[in-house]
Amino acid sequence: MKTIILIEGQNDIDIILNNKSDKENKIISFDYNSTKILNEMKLESDSIDNYFKKSDPELIDKSTVNFTQNWYKACNKKNELDFRKINLGFVIEAEIVRYFLFILRRILGIVRILEKEKPEKIICSSLEKFVKNLCNKQNIIIQSKNQKINSELEFSNIEIPINMGFKKNFTISRKNYSTIKKIVEGFLTQLLRTKFDINKTNNNKTILLLDFNPVFYSSLLEEINELFPNVLLLNQRRPAIWNKKSFKIIKKTNSKIIRLEDFETSKIKLVINNYQKEKIEELNELFNNNQLFQDYFKIENNYFWEIIQDNFKEMILTRTEEIIRKYVLSEELFKKIKIDGVLDWAHSGFDERIILANAEKENIPVLFIQHAQNMSNSKYDKFIPFQPILPTINSKTAVWGKISKEFLMVNGISKNKIFVTGSPKHDPLFNNKNSGIDSGVILLAFSGTFSSYNFHGNEIKSLENLESMITRTIEIIKEVSNIKIIIKLHPSKSYIDIKSIVQKIDPKIPIYQDEDPKKLLELCDAVIINDISTIMLEAMIFKKPTLCINTQNQNIQEEPVIQHNASLFVSDIKDLKKSIKQLIFDNDLKKNLIENGNIYVNNYFSHKGNSSKQLANILYEEFNGKKLIKDHKK
Question: What is the pLDDT of residues 266-275, one digit of tens each?
Answer without folding.
Answer: 999 999 999 9
